[in-house]
Amino acid sequence: MMNEKVNKWIDEHLDEYIEDLKDFVSINSVQGSYEQGKPFGDGPFDALNFAIDLAAKYGFSVNNYNGYVGTADLDPALPRSLDMLAHCDVVPAGEGWTVTEPFNPIVKDGRIYGRGTSDDKGPLLCAMYAMRALKECGVPLKKGVRLIMGSDEETGSTDIEKYYAVEPEAEMTFSPDAEFPLINIEKGQFRGEISKSYEESKALPRLVSLEAGIALNAVPQKAVVTLEGLDMNLAEDVMNSVSEECGVECVQTGINEITITGVSAHASTPESGKNAGLAALMLVSRLPLAPCEQLDAVNAVLKLFPYGETDGKSLGIKMADEESKDLTCTLDLYHITTTELDVQFDSRTPVMANKENCEDVVTKSVQEAGLDFTSKGMVPPHRVPADSPFVKKLLGAYEAVTGLKGEAMAIGGGTYVHELKNGVAFGAVLPGIDTRMHGADEFFDLDNIVIATKVYAEAIIELCS
After folding, report:
1. 153 is known as an active-site residue
2. Distance separating alpha carbons of residues 198 and 200, to the nearest angstrom
């Protein structure tokens, strides 16, 4: 039975939540350089301390794990049983924001906009406010609840490694860092670097540089191509044809410079983006440039990653299974100069993928194309049984609050719980809403905030009473 007192409290505290979220989002917590006591630089350090101080203000027992992770316990006297795992760091601001500046959050048309509103500062505060609602409404619990707040989720999760090196895993963990209903399977991950060194060609016209991509988990929104010795009038038709074929924008931005603008997307759903880097390779391959080894390498990469293909088919690794669906593959980082080519891809692999049918196949395909390949190997998939009592209770809480059907899903993204035995991703974004996480104009709907907070409160009651 849902707790009406708790739900009423949550409704009444939305304005306070919004003010807290605005303060939180206005901290630029993109990873910076390591400093003593600030493992991920100033931004993540400031955001982590903001979250810890806020939790302390609301009466929780807090801990700071050397600037890596903060924790807030609802009642430290109770046996620890449920962990909620969220993060304070954000991806880079990127370009193309129209509603507001990335770190100047505003509320407009029932949404709050800003970098981190839905990934993951907003959801972190939903979990904190759920705990606060239970505390201030005096709901009795038999088991302990801890909010774990990390500061390095977007760039490697070393924060969590440090935390679990000294703390045991709780019997149950959920991360409010994805979407509802619930994610019980996360695909594996396979990343690789394709490179080639070559002699510099002085023959003109030539490509001087091509740069694209800001992170290995995001389809690049922008690419910049610098040329030398090309009559730019000759580039116009090629620019128009690439723009039309790829759905991107090609604009001359300097005497010898062309900027390609596409649409960013998360690497786990590359089909929803328009890859500016691949469009840039296409552009270069079609321009009337002097033949050279550099262009051969560009063309070889294009054969392995044709524009619009996101299933790894040309690499030889297209595959799918019933439970975890299709493999995805996207080329996300590009660095090409007159003497070297270096590109990196990110593939999300179904449960059936392994070294033989995936890593070995790509190695062979890349080498046969005359390019060099390196990889750190494959990260295995993560799976919690859909019929476990833990999953069933979470879905029950979701159904009770939303009236929507709850079911367990598989995704291509890796979340904080990937390494945890009994960890799932649970919300906070409602189904069918693209909050533009990792993209420009990221937002979180205010009604979504209220619903997620109620779901988390209900879940804690179900699991810990």
Report:
1. yes
2. 6
